[in-house]
């Protein structure tokens, strides 16, 4: 049985199975990527590569409905969100096409002494391996492939085993956009095969989005082979409510940030840390909104919450909630499960430092905490092994500045939700990983920043 199959999480039906790549075919793919690096990467201009990247973005937008329907089948994303994800990909590829020349421009360096000139010239790094997760099947690929193909780095892409159909559709887009052979190639590889792909000298770097376990395993192999790695390993992002006066708006933002993608986003708000003077009212408003949000058919336009991505995911979340309750947590609303559909749930009474407080709950479960001061809120927010994103609600500008500076995370969003953009760097610290994607920082990860010094 192949590792790669589409199993509809809403129905449990296995839709289609895809064969795993053979070792010989995988070695051939490595050869094509290396050949593309030695030819296409060196012979094309930035503008030529940008034109191809632009076409990829345009094709995503043109095929948005078809592509969206695929991931509804694969991982249960509600159709409106699925189509929105594809359209965002169009913006990401467009950003790198629009800004390719400036992102790759020579960078003069002012000399402190001596004669002549110095500059940094950006050039391709080499063929790369991307290992992508199931929760945003197109977006995750876009933020890796967009900048790196603009740079000139050929890509081998291993998608999640439950996303073979979207992986196939992405391959068709790159082919139809006119990328030559070896520039972008989807591989249905096993974990054992990926180990020797990373070790192969023709692969120059690896980017992984996924679990801590997967990231640590890949980074260990890459480290032994002196390969650069970018890791995005998830998070348990705090949503801090301090000096606010419109709790309805704050609660609306909170539920949006917890239930988007059925709660299966690395950078969604997961731990709600609320000043004691607002705690009871906020909890009541959040309860009303979570209770009103009902899981439904992901193919229907009005559905906001679908099933979890798989039976494995639902089993894992159910176990986490049960262990949290056994550890003293109280269920304010929800907690039930029907197949792979999980009720929006609020947990309170979780002790700081407990097992539940340290885990990432990947689904529609909100943890709510009460704090007595700004300092206590910061301490609780930082009391986690993760450090991806964070959200801060306050009308006090000085407080916003203090708290944003003190939060240990790669991203801080103040008084807003869903404020991601193609131009904004995405990434974290601590066990959320290292490196950045998107924006100019994402374009600079796998680049040879070559010093050219003329006397």
Notes on the protein architecture:
- α7 links the parallel β5 and β6.
- The chain is built from 17 helices and 20 strands.
- With 455 residues, the protein is an alpha/beta fold.
- The protein is 43% helix and 19% strand.
- The chain starts with a strand and ends with a strand.
- The strands form five sheets. It has a seven-stranded mixed beta sheet, with helices on both faces. Strands 7-6-5-8-9-19 form a six-stranded mixed beta sheet, with helices on both faces.
- It is globular.
Brief write-up:
This protein has 455 residues and is α/β, with parallel strands linked by helices. Helices cover 43% and strands 19% of the residues.
């Amino acid at each position: 049985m192949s590792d790669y199959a589409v199993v509809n999480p809403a129905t449990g039906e296995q839709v289609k199975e895809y064969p795993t790549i053979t070792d010989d075919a995988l070695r051939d793919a490595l050869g094509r990527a290396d050949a593309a690096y030695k030819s296409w990467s060196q012979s094309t201009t930035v503008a030529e590569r940008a034109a191809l990247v632009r076409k990829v973005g345009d094709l995503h937008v043109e095929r948005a409905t078809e592509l969206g329907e695929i991931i509804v089948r694969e991982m249960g994303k509600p159709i409106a969100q699925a189509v929105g994800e594809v359209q965002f990909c169009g913006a990401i590829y467009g950003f790198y096409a629009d800004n390719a020349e400036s992102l790759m421009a020579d960078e003069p360096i002012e000399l402190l002494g001596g004669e002549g000139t110095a500059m940094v010239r950006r050039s391709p790094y080499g063929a790369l391996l991307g290992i992508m997760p199931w929760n945003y099947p197109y977006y995750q690929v876009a933020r890796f492939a967009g900048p790196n193909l603009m740079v000139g780095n050929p890509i081998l892409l291993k998608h999640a085993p439950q996303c073979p159909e979207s992986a196939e559709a992405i391959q068709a887009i790159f082919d139809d956009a006119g990328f030559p052979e070896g520039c972008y190639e989807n591989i249905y590889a096993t974990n054992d095969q990926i180990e020797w792909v990373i070790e192969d000298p023709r692969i120059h770097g690896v980017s992984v989005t996924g679990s801590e376990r997967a990231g640590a395993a890949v980074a260990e192999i890459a480290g032994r082979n002196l390969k650069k790695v970018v890791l995005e390993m998830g998070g348990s992002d705090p949503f801090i409510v301090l000096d606010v006066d419109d709790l309805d708006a704050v609660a609306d933002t909170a539920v949006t940030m917890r239930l988007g993608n059925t709660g299966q986003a690395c950078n969604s708000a997961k731990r709600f840390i609320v000043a004691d003077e607002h705690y009871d009212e906020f909890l009541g408003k959040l309860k009303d909104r979570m209770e009103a949000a009902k899981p439904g058919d992901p193919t229907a336009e009005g559905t906001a919450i679908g099933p979890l991505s798989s039976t494995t995911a639902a089993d894992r979340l159910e176990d986490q909630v049960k262990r949290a309750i056994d550890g003293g947590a109280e269920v304010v609303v929800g907690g039930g499960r029907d197949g792979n559909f999980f009720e929006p749930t609020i947990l309170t009474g979780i002790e700081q430092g407990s097992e539940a407080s340290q885990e990432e709950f990947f689904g529609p479960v909100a943890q709510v905490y009460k704090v007595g001061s700004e300092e206590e809120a910061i301490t609780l927010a930082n009391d986690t092994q993760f450090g991806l994103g964070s959200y801060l609600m306050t009308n006090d500008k000085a407080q916003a500045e203090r708290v944003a500076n003190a939060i240990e995370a790669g991203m801080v969003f103040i008084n807003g939700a869903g404020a991601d953009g193609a131009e904004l760097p995405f990434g974290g610290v601590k066990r959320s990983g290292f490196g950045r994607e998107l924006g100019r920082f994402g374009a600079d990860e796998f680049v040879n920043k070559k010093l050219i010094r003329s006397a």
